[in-house]
Amino acid sequence: MDYSKEPDQKIFSLIEQEVTRQQQGLILIPSENYASLSVIRAMGTPLSNKYSEGYPGKRYYSGNKFIDQIEELAIERAKKLFGFDHANVQPHSGSTANQAVILALLKPGDKILSLDLNHGGHLSHGSRLNFTGKFYNIASYGVEKDTEQLNYDHLEMIAKKEMPQLIISGSTSYPKQFDFDRVGQIAKTVGAFHLADIGHVAGLAVAGKHYPCQSADIVTTTTHKTLRGPRGAIILCQQELAEQIDRAVFPGVQGGPLENIIAAKAVCFLEARQPEFKIYAQQILDNALALAKSLTENDLRLVSGGTDTHLVLVDVRPLGIDGQKATLALENSGIYANKNVIPFETGTPFKPSGVRLGTPALTTRGMKEKEMEKIGSWISQLLHQSDDLTLQKKIKEEATELTNLFPVYGAPRASLPKAGKRVVPLGDTAFGGGT
Ligand SMILES: Cc1ncc(COP(=O)(O)O)c(C=O)c1O
Fold this sequence. Notes:
InterPro entries: PyrdxlP-dep_Trfase (IPR015424), PyrdxlP-dep_Trfase_major (IPR015421), PyrdxlP-dep_Trfase_small (IPR015422), Ser_HO-MeTrfase (IPR001085), Ser_HO-MeTrfase-like (IPR049943), Ser_HO-MeTrfase_PLP_BS (IPR019798), SHMT-like_dom (IPR039429). The protein has helices spanning 9-24, 37-43, 65-82, 94-105, 131-135, 152-162, 180-190, 202-206, 242-253, 259-272, 275-297, 323-331, 360-364, 369-384, 389-404, 427-431; strands at residues 26-27, 54-55, 58-59, 86-88, 111-115, 137-141, 166-169, 193-197, 218-222, 233-237, 301-302, 311-315, 335-336, 338-340, 354-358. It is of the alpha/beta class and 435 residues long. The chain folds into two domains: 41-272, Type I PLP-dependent aspartate aminotransferase-like (Major domain) (Aspartate Aminotransferase, domain 2); 275-431, Aspartate Aminotransferase, domain 1 (Alpha-Beta Complex), CATH 3.90.1150.10. The strands form four sheets. A seven-stranded mixed sheet has the order 4-10-9-8-7-5-6, with helices on both faces. Bound molecules: pyridoxal-5'-phosphate (PLP).
């Protein structure tokens, strides 16, 4: 990407530096990924100039002939990819999608049963700091103390006691698969709606590498995590709830949709239907297992006993540090992770006890088990010796060398890969030309 001819060099030189950081860093934040250049190109189009409040065929402004076709294509592709009757592709973000669902289904004061924030729930599922926690009655479920895993019989008992109007499944940091069908059965038993928020695992789900979610009344998902599309979200449901959902998105919580982003969502849905995407999703899982193995063999404790998804959660308390210190030590070596609360947290949200690591972004770059083994060993050394600046510098050099072998969006100009070393499994469609 060459921004050198842009007139606003103040902003474009910062953009260039950020792109270089993404290229030279080891991105292990599980909610981040590298969208393809096609997705990025769709986002950067004059579609952004257009106002299109409403829905295809029912807009409040003129001039939506092509926009309607784009949004319809995105809707059709989303329905086909996820197996639902109806898709709303307008939500600007995962939080807004959840907000719209709650507005559509509940009255203020109704009860929501969702995963506790410390156990992996998302803010928009009922945190007291979020609108959900302020306007709705929140009950929560969590993992068992000994296994740090969900016990669905226990969840059923809580549901029967609390009798919520809505049960939310899905998580932001639970490393094991969510059994969406089982939660759906529990919701039916107590007469509640079931919202499956599959934001983190959507890419795995559409590739058939995760428990299915089609039994949920409503599914929300971000489009930018394992699904590898633009930042944004969608809502899926069957026909009975379609009108309610559409009205809740617009005019309920949003105004004009971002049609450039909707076009990019359509591109990502097409990419996710390709056979290569299944291979990608499987490699995410293989890499997460390899990373978990390496971390465990290098004396780190993994929450929930490991992973069967794209992410792992490391408990850093045995090392005498907190997640804040841990992520800083990693960042000094160009390894990006995020500090995270863990179940039965004893720290604070700013200094929690965990570090969350995921493999979607590095898998997009073409890294495999061998690289995960090496990265796991680096992470362990950095966390065990988090004050060792010489070690941080040494690993940063080694990490940069590794990232140079796996270019994305074309390598940074100062560090082109050596000939013959390039490994980009998803081909040039994923990166629009590599180097
Ligand atoms: C499960 C889940 N739902 C919703 C969201 C919110 O998405 P956004 O940041 O797009 O609002 C996230 C983001 O981390 C998430 O992990």
